[in-house]
Recover the amino acids of this structure.
């Protein structure tokens, strides 16, 4: 089987690695540095399993900037291009996905196109009509960043959005499911087939549920802080009910990362003219939480606030849309100087705040250090640290 993957971010690179164990895979990107790194078997993203597979497995994987050549003769083209939220249009910007679809239809009219990017509910049906083809499937991706390949090797489920009544679609959907199962280590993976629109809804409702859970425990924490109660004791007590469960309940500065903020906003946009309170509240709750956290820090009258890591999670090098950046903005808006400690950053400044490379200097110069996730590196200045990381897990 010949497979092309468009986009080599977390999604594209992990899927390309997974499938290249058994098939010829060409990964396409528009960034030359990424292509060069992949061809040298260096992962452009921090991900222990991708790094391990690059080192140890004989993968049939190559990367290229030449999209047209990669799509030509492909049996499947998997799209993992970005779909950022456009705040002006109040919808995902799906232009990169459509650029790929056009190129594939020009160069490989018989290829099956699989959208793995997260898209608005109803999107696949729209592009099928726009491009006059039924050969576009949607398969939501559920990976976590920094565990990207692991989550494809041991997937919670595989979901394929296709028209199972239509022979061509049904056989393409079964082949795709077979490819994803074949690359995985886990056996007997729950695999669901449904229409593309339902599959799109699964993705957005799943991420919105995760955001709801984060927001719930964050609001519990806000309540406990205002009332001077012990958040830890309350959460432990609440979560012993097996219907609630003692997991994914660690307070933070807000939900963040590339997906949860944008996917909740997109679901809310899809709810236009449909009665709801909760979906709106999940989006609003994150803003309220960040306002509250920033107010707590400002109330300490710090001379300089030190931001310890821009990342969401402790083992990550990725800080796209991390919640601590929202806190930073609010503190700076009050005229309080902010310095940043972030080893993953090469630049001397981050949004006009100085990046301090030396940890000791950073500690000495900060009157309050804010950390979305606590670290043993900060133990010696514990009394200066503001964090809501109560359970030391992500
Ligand atoms: N990151 C996650 O945890 C995650 C999880 C599930 C789903 N998703 C979704 O998957 C999609 C990709 O996410 P990501 O985190 O991998 O994104 P990313 O931004 O890390 O990577 C996207 C890559 O696509 C490349 N690209 C842009 N336009 C292109 C084009 N026309 N042709 C080829 N490559 C192109 C970019 O240069 C970039 O390297 C998004 O829709 C996202 O919402 C992400």
């Amino acid at each position: 089987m010949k497979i092309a993957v468009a986009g080599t971010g977390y999604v594209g690179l992990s899927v390309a690695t997974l499938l290249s164990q058994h098939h010829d895979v060409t990964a396409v990107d528009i960034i030359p540095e990424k292509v060069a790194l992949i061809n040298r078997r260096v992962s452009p993203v921090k991900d222990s399993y991708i790094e391990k597979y690059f080192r140890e497995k004989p993968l049939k994987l190559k990367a290229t900037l030449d999209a047209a050549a990669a799509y030509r003769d492909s049996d499947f083209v998997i799209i993992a291009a970005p779909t950022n939220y456009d705040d002006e249009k109040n919808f995902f910007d799906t232009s990169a996905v459509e650029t790929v679809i056009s190129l594939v239809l020009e160069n490989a009219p018989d290829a099956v196109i699989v959208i793995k990017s997260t898209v608005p509910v109803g999107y696949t049906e729209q592009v099928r009509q726009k491009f006059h083809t039924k050969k576009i499937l949607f398969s939501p991706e559920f990976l976590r960043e920094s565990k990207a390949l692991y989550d494809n090797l041991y997937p919670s489920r595989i979901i394929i959005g296709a028209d199972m009544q239509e022979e061509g679609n049904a056989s393409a959907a079964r082949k795709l499911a077979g490819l994803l199962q074949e690359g995985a280590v886990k056996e007997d993976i729950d695999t669901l087939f449904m229409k593309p629109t339902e599959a799109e809804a699964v993705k957005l409702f799943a991420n919105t549920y995760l955001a709801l859970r984060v927001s719930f425990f964050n609001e519990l924490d806000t309540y406990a802080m205002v009332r001077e109660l012990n958040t830890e004791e309350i959460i432990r007590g609440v979560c012993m009910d097996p219907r609630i469960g003692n997991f994914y309940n660690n307070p933070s500065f807000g939900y963040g990362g590339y997906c949860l903020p944008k996917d909740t906003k997109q679901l809310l946009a899809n709810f236009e003219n449909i009665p709801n309170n909760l979906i709106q509240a999940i989006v609003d709750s994150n803003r309220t939480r960040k306002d509250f956290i920033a107010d707590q820090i400002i109330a300490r009258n710090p001379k300089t606030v030190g931001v310890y890591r821009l990342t969401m999670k402790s083992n990550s090098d990725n800080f796209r849309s991390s919640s601590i950046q929202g806190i930073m903005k609010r503190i700076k808006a009050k005229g309080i100087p902010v310095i940043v400690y972030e080893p993953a950053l090469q630049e001397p400044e981050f949004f006009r705040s100085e990046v301090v490379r030396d940890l000791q200097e950073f500690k000495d110069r900060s009157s309050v250090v804010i950390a979305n996730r606590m670290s043993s590196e900060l133990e010696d200045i514990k009394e200066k640290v503001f964090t809501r990381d109560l359970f030391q897990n992500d």
User: Anything to note?
Assistant: The pocket of nicotinamide-adenine-dinucleotide is lined by residues 6-12, 28-31, 34, 67, 80-83, 96, 99-100, 117-118, 141, 143, 145, 258-259 (CB under 6 Å). The two ends are 38 Å apart (CA to CA).
